[in-house]
Amino acid sequence: MRVSSAVCGVLLLVVGWQVGTWLFAPAHYILPSPYDVVSALSRQPSYLLENSLITLTEMVVGLVLGTGFGVGTAFATAAFPRVGKLVWPTMLILQAFPVFVLAPILVLWLGFGMASKVAMTTLIIFFPVASAFNDGLQRTERAILDAAALTQATHWQILLRLRVPLALPGMISGLRVAAPLAPLGAVIGEWVGASSGLGFVMVQANARMQTDTVFAAMAILAVLTVLSRLFIDRVTRGLTPWAVETEHSLPFLNSSRKHA
Asked: Structural domain boundaries of the chain?
């Protein structure tokens, strides 16, 4: 039911957009109509597909690396608390820098190729995953830890058998928040300096006042963003059967599953 509502909402938005361009007739380079955007998509499908695959590759690699580094950092700070006291202040300082400040530096260090875009995506994914997993590891209930201490369990046994499993729901929540940001990291890196990718397409089209192509690239990017979230929802579903299940997926999908 909600899926159809979401589709109807998007259709109404597109129809209103088209009617608005008919009534007010803005210049093509200011606001193209949905028809113009579809025409731009159909006019250069191979060009847009090629650059979409490059951005998708940057997203996937950055998502994997960011998740791995985030989980590893949170685990290391829980396993070695003294290390955590040094690591987390540094992380907070890095997180305070806007991504637009870091992107040119990464391009300068790593070049105009894919490496700088993957690094940008990795950074954006890293912080929410590491923060959420670390928060879950630090919030293990004191009563559980006290009960484990009575069994003379070692620090590593408590960490691996109690704290990590109980913190996994938090880590998954952080990953669900971070996944839709992966396209943002890739495109920001491409905006700063690239020779391919959807960000490159938008920069080049905007410089030539080809606004319909800009909107076409934005539409593809929106689809990639939704797909990345759906992928994470599907992959992480059922990973923590011991936790109380709450609906973290997209709202219209939750409702559709309930009415299925």
From this structure: 32-251
Q: Which residue has the tokens 């209103």?
A: 16
Residues 200, 206, 207, 210, Cα dihedral to 10°: 110
Continuous H helices in the chain: 2-24, 34-43, 45-79, 81-96, 99-110, 114-138, 142-150, 155-158, 164-178, 182-192, 198-207, 211-236, 251-259
Q: How far apart are CA 231 and CA 219, in angstroms?
A: 18
Q: Give the pLDDT confidence of 77-113 residue by residue, as tens digits.
A: 999 988 878 888 888 787 788 777 888 888 889 988 8
Position 192: which residue type? V
Q: What is the mean pLDDT of the chain?
A: 85
Q: Which CATH class is domain 32-251?
A: mainly alpha
* Amino acid identity, position 224: L
